[in-house]
What does this fold into?
Amino acid sequence: MRGIDYVVDEHGKKKAVLIDLTEWGDLWEDFYDILISESRKQEPTIAWEQLKAEIEQEEEQTA
It folds into this structure.
């Protein structure tokens, strides 16, 4: 595939990939976002309303 190169070990096993960001930069950003999302899947979440209230409270304290 054009713009994609594999790094292999001494046995020819693929270990890494080099991506030409000039060619694939937009796609890489999407892929990276998915990786970040997957890595955070088990993290606790909070409701938007709670987060918004916390942000507003912090803004009031710094004003």
Residues 4-62 form one domain.
